[in-house]
């Protein structure tokens, strides 16, 4: 019997990743046999671990998460437009000639979670993004593509927010503000928490004035890491408060389609993970 195709997710730490479960559930929908495992690589070992996976272990594709997304982008020989504009990659694919291609599915996955799963029309929203790290970069362009009217980026340290706004290059729609001024910058229809504060066990102190009536609040984190922000959103009177579990499943679906040429049904996988996290 031939060996199943090899897939993996690289991160550090990575033991608690849901990606192996999600990809196995997608594969079952099509009767595909695959081996999908976690690979814990420290930053100094990442490039060599990726080389070994693709060259020696005949890996076909890999997901990449913290802290390797910039390194994954840098080591690839080809980059999709989505990866190029963001400057990081969360998907690596071995091409037929052995070279490795980089792609970024974060933004498309987040927007699809909102528009398809939660039936939200983002057009015309005034959006506030908290954070300007890798994930914020991943979603910023996609929010603009989805039609938000304005995007205001606020980061604890101002330089990454300014760099992101400069990279987007749409000064009429994209603005930056200082974190210290959050109390007097007005209110927003869409507030995206793209900070890693919750994941790091830290809490954010945010003024309720940020949430417009009927605001939509979205935390890219999920599980415990999103509790604090979602509780704030509810207390601030937000109409909707979502975590990033759906984004995780949607970004995985994009990678699965890229590797297998088949579009999985994300809803049963999302519902089963949601039931388990309840
Ligand atoms: P990065 O390390 O690249 O960026 C972290 C960001 O959080 C920076 O903007 C940083 O600000 C800010 N930050 C950290 N701690 C605080 C704090 N205490 N107060 C205010 N700001 C803070 O991380 P990522 O962008 O890759 O990830 C961010 C989050 O998104 C994580 O929780 C991650 O799990 C989640 N994520 C979810 C995905 C999904 O599929 N659902 C996909 C990708 C990410 P500063 O620059 O000042 O340090």
Tell me what you see in this structure.
This protein is 40% helix and 23% strand. Helix 1 crosses helix 9, helix 5 packs across helix 9 and helix 9 (245-260) packs antiparallel against helix 10. It has 10 helices and 12 strands. Helix 1 links the parallel strand 1 and strand 2 (34-40). The strands form 2 sheets. The chain has a 6-stranded mixed β-sheet with strand order 2-1-3-5-6-4, sandwiched between helices. The protein has helices at residues 19-30, 46-56, 69-75, 81-86, 106-117, 134-145, 158-168, 224-235, 245-260, 266-277, and strands at residues 5-11, 34-40, 59-64, 78-79, 91-94, 100-103, 126-130, 150-155, 174-178, 188-193, 211-219, 240-242. With 278 residues, the protein is an alpha/beta fold. Bound molecules: NADPH dihydro-nicotinamide-adenine-dinucleotide phosphate. NADPH dihydro-nicotinamide-adenine-dinucleotide phosphate binds at residues 66, 106, 131-136, 155-157, 160, 194-197, 199-200, 202, 204, 220-222, 225, 244, 247-248, 251.
């Amino acid at each position: 019997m031939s060996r199943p195709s090899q897939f993996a997710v690289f991160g550090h730490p990575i033991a608690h990743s849901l990606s192996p479960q999600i990809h196995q559930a997608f594969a079952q929908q099509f009767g595909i046999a695959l081996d999908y495992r976690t690979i814990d690589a420290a930053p100094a070992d990442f490039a060599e671990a990726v080389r070994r996976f693709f060259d020696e272990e005949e890996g076909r594709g890999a997901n990449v998460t913290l802290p390797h997304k910039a390194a994954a982008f840098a080591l690839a020989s080809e980059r999709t437009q989505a990866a190029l504009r963001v400057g990081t990659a969360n998907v690596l694919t071995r091409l037929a000639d052995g070279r490795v291609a980089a792609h970024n599915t974060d933004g498309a996955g987040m927007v699809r979670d909102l528009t398809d799963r939660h039936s939200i029309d983002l057009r015309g929203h005034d959006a506030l993004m908290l954070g300007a790290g890798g994930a914020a970069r991943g979603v910023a362009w996609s929010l603009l593509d989805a039609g938000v009217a304005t995007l205001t980026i606020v980061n604890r340290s101002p330089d990454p927010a300014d760099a992101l706004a400069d990279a987007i290059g749409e000064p009429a729609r994209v603005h930056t503000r200082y974190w210290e001024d959050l109390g007097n910058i007005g209110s927003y229809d869409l507030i995206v928490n793209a900070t890693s504060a919750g994941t790091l066990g830290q809490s954010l102190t945010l003024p309720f004035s940020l949430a417009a009536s009927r605001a939509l609040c979205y935390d890219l984190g999920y599980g415990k890491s999103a509790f604090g922000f979602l509780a704030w959103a509810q207390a601030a009177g937000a109409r909707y408060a979502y975590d990033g579990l759906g984004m995780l499943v949607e970004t995985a679906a994009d990678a699965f389609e890229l590797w297998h040429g088949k579009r999985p049904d994300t809803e049963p996988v999302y519902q089963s993970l949601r039931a388990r996290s309840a």
